[in-house]
Amino acid sequence: MGGGGARGLAHIHVIETLDEMGIRPVAIAGSSIGAIMGAGMAAGMTGAEIHDHARSVLEKPINVASRMWSARPTSVKEVLSKGFRLGQFNLERLLKAFLPTQVPMTFEELEIPLSCTATDYFAHALSVLDSGDLNSALAASAAIPGVFRPVKRDGRLYVDGGFYSPLPFDLLEGKADIVIAVDVVGSPVEGPKPPTTVDLMYGASQLMMQSIIAAQLKHHRPPHILVKPDISRFRVLDFLKIDAVLKETVSVRDELKRDIENAVRDFDRNASKRQ
Question: Would you call 177 a catalytic residue per the annotation?
C-alpha cells in the first residue's frame, strides 16, 4: 500500500474488494498512509469497518477539530520538553486520537504481518519497521516534513517513508504468490491558477516519488497487479474530501477484480505446468 496522504483513502476500495472476493493477505507492506491503512487491515478490520471509521472521523470538520484538540499538549511542561515548532504537528499524538480502537499497540498483536517503510534522516537510508511499538512506527512512516514532527524511535530520527520507498511492493517478494501494489502518489496537474509555493513543494515530492517507483519497477520483480487510482487532482491533505476521493476512484474495484481473476488464472496455469 503506497503513500500519498489523503489520496490514500482510495486504499479503502482495494481492501473492500479483497473482502468481497474472500481474499485475506498473507502479508502487508505500507508506506505513510498506506502503512496506516495496512495497520487497520492487519489488525483484522474489514474494509467496511475501515470505511465507516474513516467517514465517521472525516466527514464533518467538527469531528476532525475535536480529535485534533484532544491530541494537544496537556501542559506547558510538555510543550517545553518537546519543543514548540510552528506548523509541525505531533503525529504520534494525532494517530492515537484518530486511529480506531481495533489497532493494537504492537506489531506482534496484529493478525497479519505488517512492514512499514520510514526514512532514517541521519543515516540517509530506508528503514523497515516491523516489530515493537506500532504507533511510533506508523507515525515515522507518515511524518511528512514541514507538516509533522520527525519521529524519534529507538534512538533514531525518522521522516516519511515515501522519500525512499513510496510503494514498497518489493518487501513482499517471496512472501506471497500474487503481489498487489496500490500507487496513490499521483502527479501534479495543471489548474486554472498558477501553483502556489506549497503546491510546488508537494508536486515536486510527487515527481520525486514517481521516479523512485519507476526505478523500483525496473530493478525489482514487478508486482503481479499494479493499481493506480485516478487521484492526481487531490492534494496530500485533502482528507475532508473523503466523499469525492472515494467517488472518483470507485472504478478501481471492477478493475482490481478482473486483474485478480487473471492473475489467479495465470498462477494456476503455471502451477499445473510445473507439475
Answer: no
In this predicted model, what pLDDT tens digit does every residue of 9-50 receive, in sequence order?
A: 999 999 999 999 999 999 999 999 999 999 999 999 999 999
Rounded Cα–Cα distance for residues 160 and 54 (Å): 21
Pairing mode, strands 151-153 and 125-129: unpaired
Is 187 a catalytic site residue? no
Q: Which of 160, 165, 183, 205 is catalytic?
A: 160
The model carries a pTM of 0.90
Which residue type occupies 155? G
Closest CA to 131 of 99, 153, 164: 153
User: CA distances (Å), 132 to each of 36, 53, 58, 85, 142, in order?
Assistant: 16, 25, 29, 28, 17
Catalytic residue among 32, 115, 141, 205: 32
